Amino acid sequence: MGQTSLAASRRTLALASGESAAYYSLPALAELGFGDPSRLPYSVRVLLESALRHQDHPAVEPHHVEALLAWGRGDPDAEVPFIPGRVILQDFTGVPCVVDLAALRSAMAAAGKDPNRIEPLVPVDLVIDHSVQVDFAGTAQALGKNVGLEFERNLERYEFLRWGQAAFETLSIIPPAVGIVHQVNLEYFARGVLRNKDGVLYPDSLVGTDSHTTMINGLGIVGWGVGGIEAEACMLGQPIYIKMPQVVGVRLTGALREGVTATDLTLTLVQMLRKFGVVEKFVEFFGPGLDVLPLADRATIANMAPEYGATIGFFPVDAEAIKYLQNTGRSAEVLDEVERYYRAQGMFRTADSAEPEFTDVLELDMGTVEPSLAGPKRPHDRVSLSKVKESFLAALAAPLDKDGFGVAADQLGASAPVAGSGATLRHGSVTIAAITSCTNTSNPSVMVGAGLVAKKAVARGLHTPAYVKTSLAPGSRVVNEYLAKAGLLEPLNALRFNIVGYGCTTCIGNSGPLDEPVVDAINAGNLVAAAVLSGNRNFEGRVSPHTRANYLASPPLVVAYALAGRVDIDFEREPIGTGSDGQPVYLRDIWPSGAEVAQAMTAASDPALYRQEYGNVAQSNPDWNAIPVDTGSAVYNWRADSTYIQQPPFFEQFPQQASAIAPVKNARALLMLGDFVTTDHISPAGNIAANSPAARYLLEHGVQKADWNSYGSRRGNDRVMTRGTFANIRLKNALVAPKEGGWTKYLPTGEEMSVYDAAMRYKQDGTPLIVLAGKLYGAGSSRDWAAKGTYLLGVRAVLAESFERIHRSNLIGMGVLPLRFKAGDSAASLGLKGDEVFSLPDLADDLKPGQRLTLRVQAADGALREVPVVAGIDTPIEVEYYRHGGILNYVLRQFMAAA
């Protein structure tokens, strides 16, 4: 198979406009005798088209096309490159990306090279959506006050992004108070089909620096989350290399019953797929159930692919996708181009389409799905609505190591009054009820459902207890418009679900402070307070430091639990409250019918609303437009006094040649961690705690507590972020057990201190560090700082039983070696205590993917033993990234050589 013969697959597509456009035809591959792509999963066909179209790229070769055509029958470990059509960022992860791009330009200038050569080669869209915090809630003024504080706190970051917007031609930025990145992507950025500079059509595809980039797969667009490091390399022309994906097919049949929501279906699939095991696999949905599954429901399912562990959860393009593009205001030309292109490629699913082949097949009858929540600690721990009370009470008494809360028997009835309110808090009292997060705010059916629950509740005279912090953070301003047109904003406001911002708020820990009397009551009673949110993440310490039980739920159920004020309620048997007529009101009394939801949703499918809100979206925020910007400087003028933006140390005194891979000698364990340590535990996130190293740094630089902001807002400053790495208040490090939080032991003296302070002591000693961990290390959001902070603390290697895909890649991208225990081994089974001295004597420049290495372990008594481990480097290109000290070093050396 050669390049010339593959080029014969180029075809011309006639469009309704009379125009014609070139494309590379997959059916032509069968006509030309290369192989039949029609049996492949639709998601794999997107990878195949990319490889076929990029035959002129130095990293893409004919054998990659051959390997993809042989999917499922060829080498399961074959490595294939994927070059996505675009990159999408949110501001928490986007700011450090732009910081790194600015640093690359500074490094080029320092080397006497043209800094303008550092320019994204694919379109990059950044949505500022993660900076707004719910400081104010429950009033009509909440939105304005929160947005005002957002600009006040983040002006330095926004000034920097305004420079980036002017400095980089291919970077576009959506300003604050527009929407959540994934919903804006779904409603606005996505086109379905893209064109390159030569006018060639190809499938819309992307990667993003947020793990929930996967939401776009609901629209038939392949996209997944990557670390900021990998995204930057992709912007600069590097393919993403992946092992040939296994594709698990999920056959959907039946239809959801009355009263069951898309959220319930999604949580059911999350539990089912996590149990089956789909980590690092593609999931593709098929079957007759797709014919009755709305696009917004598909997007809800696709959104939570990280929670079930898959790389993507994909739905093929079909008539429903075209309908969604039409309803969200896309032009007739776009609709025609998308449908004609996918039909021509044999990638347009219909009810009569042949079902593709899959690695494995699961099946779900959607008629069996029941109302559900997930919690109280993990998104894949689904619990039926009817069992939430029973489940919560069991978790209260269960020990901590059994995912419980360890409440002593004599404290199960603990309570404490909320000063000045007459209310009393108990275990399970709901103190946060938030309609938030792209998962559900992008789905009109559940948003309308929440409004109807509120409308019926208000009509019956119900209200939310004052101790419940209620908030509504729509995923786009379109939601505000259709809720208003349906007459549902007013009842939501009456229950204090006032709009607090257009962004990702509570789901990422930007829930803001609880009222002091509520916090005092929680602390006085040592209570397990609860949060109920329509998000996708509920890991410990994420939502709020004051809510230990966190449940994911549909927006209508968020309203229901806000009204009840507690999670230990059986909605079937216990009233949700007492109406104005003195009679008990049950959830069934205020739950809307499917017909009522459908009628109210008419406004949500008005294309004019979407055209109105996105018509001039980049210039839609006058406060953003008023920020002054230096439009003439290709190289950023770094400010030494900034506490938000600092030039990172990655490229200082940068050698233009890579050093040889060297062994690790006499390393100490910085941390010894257990299973399911997430990037929330590793990466700085949420509030900056008093007396923490990061807080000390800010105070030393004249920043008072009121202006500390959050870790996420300071991701452009490595000095803050390194100090906050492994600082999560729920981190469990066996070296200091049972103490929780960002603490460790400086082993040479046995002193307990912060992780950062210990790492700096080891750095002074010249001692390399490793981290020991259990299963699924690095699960959760694709936070690049989980890898960057690890590297800057001096960690050379992380030894775990298994890794989540993105974090493993990010570690390599920063020059940190992921190591896997041999199958069946663990720190516990090997009797490791964490106080040993570790060496990797055979780590050398001839490192191979998946190579077995010897870990030499010296115990405190001097005894030596050797433990077999496996290098968690899976492909040859990852060896190159690691050899260069990280992916950006690799790319920078390429640019310098070319210049």
From TrEMBL:
Residues 78-565 form the Aconitase/3-isopropylmalate dehydratase large subunit alpha/beta/alpha domain. Pathway: Organic acid metabolism; propanoate degradation; Carbohydrate metabolism; tricarboxylic acid cycle; isocitrate from oxaloacetate: step 2/2. It is an enzyme of class 4 (lyase). GO terms for molecular function: 2-methylisocitrate dehydratase activity; 4 iron, 4 sulfur cluster binding; aconitate hydratase activity; metal ion binding; RNA binding. Residues 695-823 form the Aconitase A/isopropylmalate dehydratase small subunit swivel domain. Keywords: 4Fe-4S, Iron, Iron-sulfur, Lyase, Metal-binding, RNA-binding, Tricarboxylic acid cycle. Pfam families: Aconitase, Aconitase_C. Signal peptide: none annotated. The keyword Cytoplasm does not apply. This is Aconitate hydratase. It comes from Immundisolibacter cernigliae.
